[in-house]
Structure to design on (176 residues):
């Protein structure tokens, strides 16, 4: 074998290896990108389910507290106590886990690049917390309960915010 033949074989082998390497790298990059997109879609889909569950807790809280504020309930001590017990149970057992779930969801969405949805969930959480804080007087109990109208107006902000979150999650999912 001459030097030229050795050089020719080396170039052919090297060129073949380079082409194979480029193909493997391109395939690997595409596969990682696809895996990230699948993970992103999964996080958004699970996030929508988690947000639905968490927002249902606030719907239950709103319904219970709105019932508590009704004049016919307020005028009957026994009915008022029963209604407050329902409100208190939701506050003690359900709201904290729902808020923690939303915080975790915000972080997950941020990690996969759905930052707008994460911010909107934070906004909803803020509105929902405002609804909750209306039921818990800041001065330890001597503060007068809000009117049903005031409570409803505050809830409407949270409800509108919830709809915006679902729209953003849907948009993020479709963009994946």
């Amino acid at each position: 074998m001459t030097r030229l033949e050795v050089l020719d074989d080396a170039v052919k082998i090297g060129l073949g290896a380079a082409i194979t390497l480029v193909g493997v790298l391109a395939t690997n990059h595409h596969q990682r990108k696809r895996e990230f997109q699948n993970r992103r879609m999964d996080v958004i889909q699970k996030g929508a389910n988690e947000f639905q569950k968490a927002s249902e807790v606030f719907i239950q809280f709103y319904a219970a507290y709105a019932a508590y504020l009704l004049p016919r309930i307020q005028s009957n001590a026994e009915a008022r106590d029963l209604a407050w017990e329902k409100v208190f149970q939701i506050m003690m057992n359900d709201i904290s886990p729902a808020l923690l779930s939303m915080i975790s969801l915000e972080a997950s969405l941020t990690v996969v690049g759905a930052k707008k949805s994460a911010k909107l969930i934070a906004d909803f959480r803020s509105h929902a917390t405002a609804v909750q804080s209306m039921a818990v007087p800041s001065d330890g109990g001597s503060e007068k309960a809000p009117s049903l109208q005031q409570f409803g107006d505050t809830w409407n902000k949270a409800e509108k915010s919830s709809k915006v979150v679902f729209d953003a999650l849907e948009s993020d999912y479709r963009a994946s």
About this structure: The chain has five helices and no strands.
